[in-house]
Every structure is written in C-alpha cells, then in structure tokens.
Amino acid sequence: MTTVPRRWRPVAIAALAFILAAGSAIRLVHLERGEFLDDELNHYYAGRSVAEGHGPRLPSGALYERGADFTRMAAVVLGHTSPAERAVRLPSAVLGSLGLVIFAGVLWGFGGPWVAVWGTLFLAIYPEAIRLSRFGRFYTLQLAFGLGALYTGWRALRNAGARETPSRNDVRSGWLWALGTIALLLYAARVQVVSLSVASGWGLAAVVAAAADERARGLTAWRRSVPIQLATLGLAAVALLVLLFPEQVVALRWLARTTPRWAQTGESSLPLAYYYVLSDAAFGLLPLAAAAFVVVALRNLRLALYLFLWLAVPVALHSLVFAWKGERFILLAMPALFATLAIAAAAGAGRRPGAVQRALAPRVIDRGRREVAAAAVVAVVCLAGIVTLPPVSAARKALRAQPDAWRAAAVILRAPALASAPIGGSKQLPARYYWERLDFTVTQGGLERWTPTFDARHQNGEAVAGGYAAAPQGTPDYYAGVPVLTTPEAIRERFAGSGAVLIGIDGPELNLPNIIDPELRRVLEANAEELCRGQCGTLRLFHWRFAPPP
Q1: How far apart are alpha carbons 167 and 173 in whole angstroms?
Q2: Alpha helices (H) in 245-366, listed in sequence order
Q3: Which residues pair with 529 in a beta bridge?
Q4: What is the 3-state secondary structure (H, E, C) of 8-38?
Q5: What confidence score (pLDDT) does residue 275 get?
Q6: Is 463 helix (H, G, I), strand (E, B) or coil?
Q7: How far is CA 149 from CA 144, 185, 271, 285, 325, in A?
Q8: How large is the average pLDDT for residues 177-197?
Q9: CB within 8 A of 364, min separation 6: which ones?
Q10: Whole-Å CA distances, 539 to 35, 487, 536
Q11: For 284, left (φ over 0), alpha (ψ -120 to 50), or beta?
Q12: What distance in Å separates the CA atoms of residue 222 and residue 259, rounded to the nearest whole number?
C-alpha cells in the first residue's frame, strides 16, 4: 500500500525493531517506582490469596473475580519477583509489550512495513497505553486480544462487495476468520465488558459488508456471502437474547446509564468527554484524522470504512449512551485511529523523498547518495515532528516516580503518641497495606451496595435492575472489611472512648462531596491537626481530638 521502494524494507524492519525495543523498555523499566494504587491492590491481595489456596479473596474475605486471569498471573509472579509493586505490574507490562508486537503484525498486514513503523510508534508513545502497561490491572490483557480481533475481523470482511462469487474455500476461510474474531472479542469482553462496544462496531461493519454483497450480487449472494450469513445470525442472536433474557438486558441498560457514586464528577457525563481526551492524546493529529480517513479511502475504501466503524461506534456509544466516562474505556477503539493515521503518514512520507531528491540534484550528483540524503532529510523532519508532540512529554511523565504518600504517612504514624489512636482512611487497601492497620474508612462510596439481581420493582413506572442501596453506618467495607463511618457523628460515637482518631484522606478526594462527607471535611479542617504538612504528597493526615482522653 505504501509507495516506498522495496529496497528500503530493511530500513523499515530496523526502525520497527527499534520502536518495539524502545516501547517495551518504556513499559518494563522501573516498575517498582510509585506506591500501589487501589485497583492494583485488589490483584495483590486476591493473587496472594490464590497462591495460598484460598481463592481470589480480598482482606474482607469477599471473592474478587474481576480480571480473574490477570489475578492468577499476578499470583504466579508474586512468588518469584519482588518488590510486590513490580510483581503485580509485571504481567501488565509484558502484555503491553506483547500488544506492540501484535499491532505491528496487524499493521504490516494492512499496508506493509512502513505502515507498521508509523502505527506501532503511535501506540508505543500513546500515554494511556503506557499508563495501563505500568499499572497492575487487566487492560493490556484486554488490548492484546482486541488487537488480534482488529485483524481477524478485517480478514473476515475484506472481500465484501466483490462481484465475483466467492469459492467454497473462500467462504470456509471467511468463516474461520469470523469465528476467530468472535472468540477474541468474547474473551476481551470477559476481561473487560466494555469490549462489547467494539464488538458492536465490528457487528455494524458486518451489516454494511452484507449490504455491499447484496448490492453487488443480488439476493442470491447470501449462499456464499460470509458477511450476509454473519449479519443474519448476529441479528437473530441479539433478538433471541432479548426474548429469552429480558432481565439481563434491563440490567445492562441500567448499568450503562449508571455511574458509581465515587466516580461522579462534573465531567463524568459530558457527551464531549472523549473528544477532549482525543484532542489531548491523539498526537495533535485529531484535526487531520478526517483527512487521514479520506487518504485511506482513496487507497482502499473497504479498509477505511472498517477502521472508521471500529473507532466511531465505541466512541459514540461511550459518549452518548454510557454515563461513566474514562479514557481506558475506548482503549480497544484507538488502534483503528492509529492504523488510519499510519497508512496516511506512510503514504505521505513515501512521496517526500522524491521531491527532496529533485531539490538535492544540483548539489548531490550520485543517485545513490541523493536517495540516502533525501531519506535522511525526511527522517529528521519526521523525528523532529514526533518528539515535539504532547504525548512524548506525557509518556516521559509516566516514568517519573510519584511521591510516596502512604509510606511517608506511615513514618508519622509510628510516633508513640499516636500508637493507640484508631486509624481511618479514604482509600482502604493502600492504607491497610502501607500502614499495616486500618480501623475504619470514610469513603461514602462504601455505603452503597450493588445488588445485581433483577428487581421487579418499578421506579417512576420504569423497571430497574438491582440498584445501589444505602447501608447503615458501620457496615463492613467490601474491600478491607473495616466499618464504613462517613459522618463526624458516627466516628465520635464509635470511638468516643479513644478521645481521638487519625484520618488519612487523599487531597483531591477531600473536596469531592460524593466521596467525603462535606460536614466531615468541615470538622477536620476546623478542629483537627494536619500532621503531614506537605510531606506526604497529596495525602493529608488529620489528628482529630474530639474528646478528652479517659
């Protein structure tokens, strides 16, 4: 698909190898830097429990089954690697590096080595991909399978609209590619359910491909049209699920429109949230994305439409239907954008050396020297453009170690005068891990219990599936098993005999009323002593004396 001469293929392979090595290094080095985040500790505790033969259990005793395969990976690595931060993050980093290799192969299949060079570079420095690769969570496992589905899905549909009737071997091959795509997307959805939004994009691509086959060969095309057969079976399966399992459909609909209380912010439901994310993260090239799709369409209309639907459908669903926003939720959609930009970039860069050679003709007589000089000029210009992109700075920031907030607070908590005071925290598992003791949590989200079973009750005339039910103060927290005490009154009542409590709250959370009770914040800032005084990063550690000691 590119216009670069074949004699430059070794250069492309060398560049691709360098990008893969550098991208993997960014993901793998210094994984021990920075303290555990909440979700990473889910896999740490569950993985340690698996290694001990008790199943994936949290400190509270509750089963933690999200990302079960990733938890098992973490359990294996925890037995052979230290410190624990590196052990839990290593599977994600390895999978993130593997994703680069898979994407390079996908891009090579789309357009050759130079497309692979450009697209792999985009994914290698994509800040969210780097962050998730250095984060002990299952998103890079989801991405690896989604990248495979991007290619197999294309192979299943790439001949749509052809006037020639496919052979039986072509039909058999198409169905093998389609079944492979279904299997990969189902596993990706098992890892993270939002993968179904990308599956919807592929499903719409199959419907469009079916329409193209019908238009090209008439109604009889269905006999040897994988897209028509696939679209028909898919629509029938969806209808059957709606008829046989209406409760689950209602549950999914409710879940799509619900944002957990702790995640509710002013921007959690903005339809343009992903536009802003892409504007910041798409290498400053988002304004050129439309032009890139046009370039790809002029070269291969089917591929351009396929990549567009793979990207646009999930972004539209997450923007307009799903209430909870997060850049990680469109992770599987982004490679379609990178592939489109890569094809356009390879086409543009492939044409530039010829113009540079003509400009160099009066100065460099030898043709071979002209070619090398022209390629060097184009490479320097491209490299200069890349290193000045915002994501390169963001990628560099991802490698910086954050201040040790919980460890710094642990040093303060070792003071003998504080040894007897009950300890509370806004983040249950980090506090429990780094402080080795936690007596209660003040996070309001812990007061909500999700009941996933179908509930036939009607609210305002509309059936709802389960819901969030407020639990009484003192209810054991799901993660750490400690009491949830969010109000000043509940804390005073529980620990009246102690005379004082210690409460560690992440600074940004202190100002979020959906996480920290506003009255508790007022009381702490007015009556408690702040012990960290800026030494614990964003963490604030309050010593609240609410009664004289007994």
Answers
A1: 10
A2: 246-256, 273-281, 286-299, 301-320, 334-360
A3: 543
A4: HHHHHHHHHHHHHHHHHHHHHCCCCCCCCCH
A5: 82
A6: strand
A7: 9, 6, 27, 25, 24
A8: 95
A9: 370, 373
A10: 12, 20, 5
A11: left
A12: 42
What does the H/E/C string look like for 112-180?
CHHHHHHHHHHHHCCHHHHHHHCCCCCHHHHHHHHHHHHHHHHHHHCCCCCCCCCCHHHHHHHHHHHHH
Q: Which residues contact 548 (CB under 8 A, 6 or more apart)?
A: 499
Reported as a single tens digit per residue, the pLDDT across 403-448 is 789 999 999 999 998 988 999 999 999 999 999 899 999 988 655 5
419, two tokens:
């040894």
How many residues would you count in the chain?
550
Give the count of alpha carbons within 13 A of 363, CB side only: 9
Q: Are the CB atoms for 214 and 228 separated by under 8 Å?
A: yes
* One-letter amino acid of 68: A
Q: Which residues pair with 453 in a beta bridge?
A: none
The pTM (predicted TM-score) of the whole model is 0.86
Residues 6+ apart with CB under 8 A from 146: 184, 185, 188, 195, 198, 331, 332, 335
281 pLDDT tier (thresholds 50, 70, 90): low
Can you read off the two tokens belonging to residue 414? 């070792």
Predicted local distance difference test score (pLDDT) of residue 386: 64
61-70 CB contacts, 8 Å cutoff, 24+ apart: 61/481, 62/478, 62/479, 62/481, 66/42, 66/138, 67/43, 67/137, 67/138, 67/141, 67/191, 67/192, 69/138, 69/141, 69/191, 70/43, 70/137, 70/138, 70/141, 70/191
The mean predicted confidence, pLDDT, of the chain is 84
Cα dist from 466 to 84, 212, 245, 402, 508, whole Å: 37, 42, 15, 39, 30
CA dist 160 → 112, 164, 171, 308 (Å): 21, 10, 12, 16
Helix (H, G, I), strand (E, B) or coil at 504: strand
Q: What CA–CA distance (Å, rounded) separates 344 from 135? A: 32
> 385, 348 in Cβ contact below 8 A?
no
